[in-house]
Amino acid sequence: MPAAAAPAPGRWHVWGRHLVLFVLTAASMFLTVGVGLAEKAGTGELEVRWDVGAGLKLVAALMSILLAHEMGHYVACRLYRIDATLPFFIPAPLINPLVGTFGAVIRIKSPFPHRRALFDVGVAGPLAGFVVCLPVLALAMLEARVVPTATAQGMPLGDPLLFTWAFALMRGAPPDGHTILIGPLGMAAWFGLLVTGLNLLPIGQLDGGHAIYALFRDRAYAIARGAWWIGVGLIVVGGPSWILWVILVRLIGLRHPPTLNDWEPLGRARAWVGALCLLIFVVCFLYQPIPFSWLDVWREFRPWLTSS
Fold first, then answer.
1. Which of 50, 213, 221, 305 is the most buried (most CB within 10 A)?
2. Measured CA distances, 22 to 2, 31, 85, 164 (Å)
3. In the chain, where does DSSP find H-type helix?
4. Nearest Cα to 289, choosing from 133, 105, 98?
5. What integer best gives the mean pLDDT of the chain?
6. Is 245 left (phi over 0), alpha (psi -120 to 50) or beta?
7. What is the pLDDT of residue 308?
8. Which residue has the higher pLDDT, 181 or 214?
9. What is the structure's pLDDT at 38?
């Protein structure tokens, strides 16, 4: 007798859990930016302050960028009949105090049929997310304020090249002694560019790793090892913020598995798209996302060490 067909997955597995995570992530973003504590005038007591507009701006902008990125992967998978899930959004209301999320991922459950499919699925996400990020970045530049550096509040952030160029083009370079204070749209654009740059690293099964294996195949592992060692070097130059990322990438793995047909050619057009992705990586990449050097670590822990 023929084997019984496997039961079709229920609604929870098809879209229910994805919808729940989508809502939780949106709520996490809103609470991270839209709710804060402020001191009551003259009392010294703290009260909850709501900034609904800021929370809604961040949710709308950043969720659009992340959704575009993951749906780029998903649609490419569907075009090649590759089994993949809808996006899993990752809420992080306390762990990531900047935007309240670690982004989103999809799970690809079947092998890639050939390198063309691997390349197209790999680059579709960063390209789609980057396209949506551009208008958010433009609006963020209009929203941003230039303030004296001495009075600036909030966590300092590193500037990707595209951030610097966009502000100089639309607003002009800030005068000496002043800095750019971004709003919720700026945070969405900053995090969107950060996610795009990190995903385009040419390592393992990151988006950049997919593209590098599709383009170079046998040399992809050597490129991934070199990129990983550069990341180790960035721990020294860029500060301790790279430690977790270097460990995480190593756990994911540097080597990319082969496709079912590694010998099918890519064509020249995909090589040009690969060059475009390299350019996007350069303008998005942050070697120091949060300026916190080893000297800052020493300054933080020195009083504790000397007192003990």
1. 213
2. 40, 14, 14, 31
3. 11, 17-34, 52-79, 115-143, 161-170, 184-199, 207-216, 220-238, 242-252, 268-284, 294-307
4. 98
5. 87
6. alpha
7. 54
8. 214
9. 47
| Residue 132 main-chain phi, psi, to 5 deg | -70, -30
- In whole angstroms, give the CA distance from residue 257 to residue 265: 17
For residue 289, which phi and psi values (nearest 5 degrees)? Answer: -55, -45
Query: Is residue 121 predicted with pLDDT exceeding 50?
Result: yes
Q: Give every CB contact of residue 37 below 8 A, 6+ residues apart in sequence.
A: 46, 47, 48, 49
Which of the four pLDDT bands, split at 50, 70 and 90, describes residue 305? low
The CA distance from 281 to 201, in Å, is 8
Q: Which two tokens stand for residue 206?
A: 């990151």
Question: What confidence score (pLDDT) does residue 39 get?
Answer: 47
Instruction: Write out the H or E segment, with its range, that includes residue 38.
Output: strand 35-39
- Reading the block at residue 121, the tokens are 């699925």
Beta-carbon contacts of 204 under 8 Å, excluding residues fewer than 6 positions away, are: 224, 249, 252, 253, 254, 255, 256
| Residue 190 structure tokens | 């900053």
List pLDDT tens digits, range 267-298: 899 999 999 999 999 999 887 787 777 676 66
Distance CA 59, CA 57 (A): 6
The two tokens of residue 102 are 């670690």
Domain residue ranges in the chain: 12-36+49-307
User: Cα separations (Å) of 173 from 83, 146, 167?
Assistant: 48, 10, 7
DSSP conformational letter for 12: I
Q: How far apart are CA 103 and CA 264, in angstroms?
A: 33
pLDDT, tens digit, for every residue of 67-85? 999 999 999 999 999 999 9
Residues 104-108, mean pLDDT to the nearest whole number? 95
Separation between Cα atoms, residue 97 and residue 94, nearest integer Å: 6
Nearest Cα residue to 14 out of 102, 100, 72, 74: 74
